[in-house]
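W.,

You were right to be curious about this one. When I first looked at the sequence I had no strong expectations either way, so I just let the prediction run and decided to look at it fresh. Below is the sequence, 233 residues in total, followed by the output.
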Amino acid sequence: MLHCGKSGTALASRIPPLNQTDCADPVKVLLADDDPGRISALTAVLSADGGLTILRPRPGELLMDAVAALTPDIVLVDMARPDRDALEGIRAVSAHTPRPIAMFVDHDDPAFMEEAIGAGVSSYNIAGVPPPDIKPILRAAAALFRRHQTARDELRDAEVRLRERALVDRAKAILIRERRIAEPEAYRLLRKRAMGSGRRIPDIAREIVETHEQLTAAPETPAGPDHAKGVSP
């Protein structure tokens, strides 16, 4: 089940359900296509659902700029045939303003499908005409996007924890060497400083490591015989 939310929450948790019974606000679908015939056919399908609001980029507007300006819940890219140039816009959206993206193409191209998914497409579909009910496809795209976002967030958090743990270990090693204390005492000292200053232990550890590096950095020594003799340049 997807959930409604406000703009201040994480995107992955604020994509609303694709129906009006679960969410008061309609789902904003950005339709990106340059073919008038396909736009008309797809708009007719989308407009039949009162729970969807259809948005369109301005003529010549980049996809990333349209997403930033219109803040859609889902992006739908429809094209007559696989177009690798269009993937650059999708990559930009995925990098800067990530959204679930559903793509429709008329012709099967396995290699292009791999590139599209790698660029950030959540749902890749082959259909010569818009399907009679597009909501399940959009719902699947949103669900896959949310799952991938969660996985990326978890990986990023794990990487941050590993870096912070290594930083704390370095700070403890410095305290152990300089103060000639045991590891438990070094950690207690870090914790005491953190509690006393209202900061996190990794922040205290980073401060200790940076100070140590500054103090132990070798000063630059100008080369040359005059300097060796103590003569000012």
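Here's what jumped out at me. Residues 221 and 227 are 9 Å apart (CA to CA). And, maybe more interesting for your project: The chain has two domains: 11-152, 157-215.

Coffee later to discuss?

I.
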